[in-house]
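Good morning N.,

You mentioned wanting to compare the apo and holo forms, so I went ahead and generated the holo version with adenosine-5'-diphosphate. This is what I fed in:
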Amino acid sequence: MTNLFHSFYWKISLVFLLLLIALGAAQVLITYNSSMQFVRQADQKLNLDLAKNMAGEFEAELEDGLDISRIKSSIHDMMVVNPRIEIYILDSSGKILAYFIDPPGEVKQDSVSLGPVRDFLQHPQSDLIMGEDPRNPSLTKPISVAPLDIGEPQNGYVYIILGGEQYDSALRMLENSYYLQTSIKIFGVILLVTGIAGLIIFAFLTRRLRKMTGIISKFDQGDLDQRVPVNSDDEIGRLAKSFNSMADTLQENMKELKKTDQLRRELIANVSHDLRSPLASIQGYLETILLKESTLSHEKRRKYLEIILKNTFGLRQLVEELFELSKLDTKQVEPEVEPFSISDLIQDVALKFEQQADDKGIQIVAENASGLPLVKGDIALIERVLSNLIENSIQYSEEGGIIRLELKQEGAAVQVQVKDTGAGISEDDLPHIFDRFYRAEKSRSRSEEGTGLGLAIAKKIMELHGKEIQAQNRNGQGAVFTFELDRAN
Ligand code: ADP
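and this is what came out, ligand included:
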């Protein structure tokens, strides 16, 4: 039962049926009232002159003063003809002097209000004038009234209640009326047909909702591929569309979350691995130094200490880069965008690495591009990108190599390229070099240096600027890294 009322279908059906029943009841009530009104009006119209005629009859009897018993017998004859009336003789103030009711009954009031009496006499052709019923003070009934000379200074009235008590059984009369019964039957049939049609239409409309609920609950149980078919552009169609787009977003987010989770696992694995090797090396050399303290030559001790220092430096760099990447990931670093001269910046960065390149016999050529517009960006972060690229170029180039820093205006942007004449990047490695911790096997075996985070950091910084960074091979002559910065207004 509770389930029944939880169903939307039954809720709207119930409201609909209740409304239909209320409509039916209102219709019966209105029909009953208007029928009553009609009967009363007809009664009054037909008996408009009844009181007048009666007064004419009485006046002969009243010539010698008001003699109730004499009047009674003549009234009796009239009431035989029309038993549905109650006759009252009123004085000029409305006080009841005599009444004639058949069968006799209790009269609860000893006077009636004269308002309707005057209305009747002044506007005899009015639609319907209802007067007080002395037997039922709370009810008003159609009347017929005429003045009556009762031998007093002022006239009295003949006051006739039409229909009398019999109106109270009018409902029964109407119940038996063919017209009323037929119209109630027709209305009943209309209600029944409307009710059934309504229930069928609601069932049809809610079927789509039920279908949708089924699909959504499957989605809820984990089947994220479930989508609601959209067959219309109405509210339900739009709801289905909204659900589908929400499901798409949710699925995308889930994929993203899974990917992030996977990345996080890889990151932990990589970090542990990259921490373990230098730590093991440091531990090994320290143990050797301690064990062979007395026998170790000065040169060897120095060499071991240098290796330890180099590993410590590598560890520090790894931790710093991890920290930097995590700050970029969590958006703790917001680029402070300002106009600056990229041409000046590459000169500065080239100068910074000149000594390091020189030590390896490599030349850095920074193009002196005059006339280029200022660019927009966070100067410190862009410097970091350039440093990472130049560091890599130095690292992966042999003696005699040349690193060129080139600038070119490209529409509303300035293109920056770092070209080297080093080993280049294999086609297999190319799609992955911007991934965290990715190091091409070649470079891994050749050098223990490098964390595999430098390019990931560069890519993240460019993403924060809304830009991309790309790597290409220069047909066996080394690698080229390219990115763009928007010109400042
Ligand atoms: P790493 O610290 O190993 O240099 P990066 O993220 O900076 O890490 O670079 C990732 C990998 O991309 C490197 O291991 C290397 O294999 C490759 N790479 C980057 N720059 C160059 C370059 N200029 N020439 C050749 N290979 C490069």
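Residues 469 and 483 are 5 Å apart (CA to CA).

Happy to go through it together on a call whenever suits you.

Best,
F.
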